[in-house]
Amino acid sequence: MAVLRDELIGLRSMDDMIKARQLVRDCAIFQGLSLVDQTKIVTAASELARNTLVHGGGGEMRLQALNDGPRRGVKVIFADRGPGIPNIELAMKDGYTTRGGLGLGLSGSKRLVNEFSIESQSGKGTTVSIVRWK
Amino acid sequence: MGQNMQLAEEIRKRQDAILKDWMAYQVSALTLRRDLVKESELRETSRQFLELFSEAIGVSTDTSSPSWKPVKDSLAEISQKRAAQGFSPSETATFVLSLKQPLFDLVQQRVGQDGKRLADMLWEFTKLLDHLGLYTTEVYQESREGVISRQQQELMELSTPVVQLWDEVLALPLIGTLDSARTQVVMENLLQRVVETGARIAIIDITGVPTVDTLVAQHLMKTVAATRLMGADCIISGIRPQIAQTIVHLGVNLNDIVTKATLADAFEVALARLGATVSKAASTS
Amino acid sequence: MERIPILKMGPYLLVTIQVDMHDRVAMTLQDELTQRIVSERARGVLLDISSVDVVDSFIGRMIGNIASMSRVLDAETVVVGMRPAVAITLVELGLALPSIRTALNVDAGMTLLKSARKMAGNGRPAR
């Protein structure tokens, strides 16, 4: 698998989050994703960037354009050094929320992408990685 | 390497003879598709290839080195063309693999009785041509995969036509089953047409959907929900008796969705909502 | 900070969202819109999101909140102009917003508000 583009940006403020959305959109267009697929990965990235900001106390986003044979895709990785998620299974459930949101951030963004993985260690932080293929 | 240069020179010098032999092997090979390729065309392709080949071998015998790029590009082009024309992988690889025999003959004539040198050189050529053969197959497979995925895409688009029944009324006759990839295409087509036509009502007819399980029902409900978000209403029609039974047995909740047994019924409801009626014209005898 | 303009059109308010919305802008909009509904005695709100290319759960929730709040203030909200890709994504996200009214564009939304008022008979839009 070849990585065509590799960008790293910090997620410290709402402005960063908006910039992150635009970067993901650019990358999805670059990879030739359809409008619906673009919208899905940008929306998922928006959910996860907000999590990084609100729950993780800020962190960073890494964006990669992937080529795997004839398949082209976009991978986004969110990492923070926040408190971590004690119970991932519970956090992945629709409607589970700690801050009065809708509880769709994790479960919803998982439905918007082709690949989703999450790692979290209590006290050390959380890393979420998503891929949408063309 | 001097030896390479010599070899290249030799191939160039005897190009006509090699080409003649090579053509003979290709033509006699059982795998030649006379129905798909003309001999004159094949000769020209082979001649051009041989030229590139002798140039590359003059620089290096390592096919991964940059000097082999023109050879590989040319092979890739041939491979892609054959894949598109419907050649099999072995029919495609025979092109470059049948060059072995003429080249072996050439080596044999040059080296003569020196057994060790002969073996070394034959091994070198075998490796080289096998590499090129494998490369041909790889490209062949890639372009076939490309063809398949394009056809899948076309099939999906073909199988989801959206038709306008009336001013502000669209119909989507679904045929075949609904998986998540197809649902996305169906939704995209339907919503795009809603925007284009300014439709207020979309009728999704599932007469042609063989089974409705929980997953298919979920996909249908997603389509209805997305259409509603755009500002149009959905009616599902074409619910056959067995499907009505399975839906209830599975506990699928379609309560929030207007459902009708036939497309005609759904159309009547749609017209009524728009305040239109269709009646038979009074006889004018 | 940029603000989202609220225009008065007869008894209705038209809100056109055109920026890639900052969470704080969204919160300010809720504040200002509820105030305007009261001060203008508005009977309906048209929320035009035809320029919005991403609606995540936060923005989705804000849209739902605006609809609920204005309903309490006796003004019906119609969300108009949602793009197909946004609609598909929202449904997949799990946010079908079943309680909000929708229309294809501002004209259709206006017609919907007018007919709702007529049907209610007393100048109040019906649910």
Description:
The complex is a heterotrimer of chains A (134), B (285) and C (127). Chain A has helices spanning 14-30, 35-54, 88-91, 105-111; strands spanning 2-11, 59-68, 71-80, 115-121, 125-133. Chain A is an alpha+beta fold and 134 residues long. Chain A has a single domain (2-133), classed as Histidine kinase-like ATPase, C-terminal domain (Heat Shock Protein 90), CATH 3.30.565.10. In chain A, strand 4 and strand 5 (125-133) form a beta hairpin. In chain A, helix 1 (14-30) runs antiparallel to helix 2. The radius of gyration of chain A is 14 Å and the shape is globular. The model of chain A has no long low-confidence stretch (mean pLDDT 91). Helices cover 65% and strands 9% of the residues of chain B. Chain B has two domains: 2-153, Globin-like (Orthogonal Bundle), CATH 1.10.490; 163-274, STAS domain (Transcription Regulator spoIIAA). In chain B, strands 1-2-3-4-5 form a five-stranded mixed sheet, sandwiched between helices. By secondary structure, chain B is an alpha/beta fold. Chain B starts with a helix and ends in an 11-residue tail after the last helix. Chain B has helices at residues 2-13, 15-28, 39-59, 69-85, 89-97, 100-111, 115-158, 180-197, 214-230, 241-250, 263-274, and strands at 163-166, 169-175, 201-208, 233-237, 258-259. Chain C has 127 residues and is α/β, with parallel strands linked by helices. Chain C has a single domain, classed as STAS domain (Transcription Regulator spoIIAA, 2-Layer Sandwich), CATH 3.30.750. Chain C has a five-stranded mixed sheet with strand order 1-2-3-4-5. Chains in contact: A-B, A-C, B-C. At the A-C interface, helix 1, helix 2 and helix 4 of A face helix 2 and helix 3 of C.
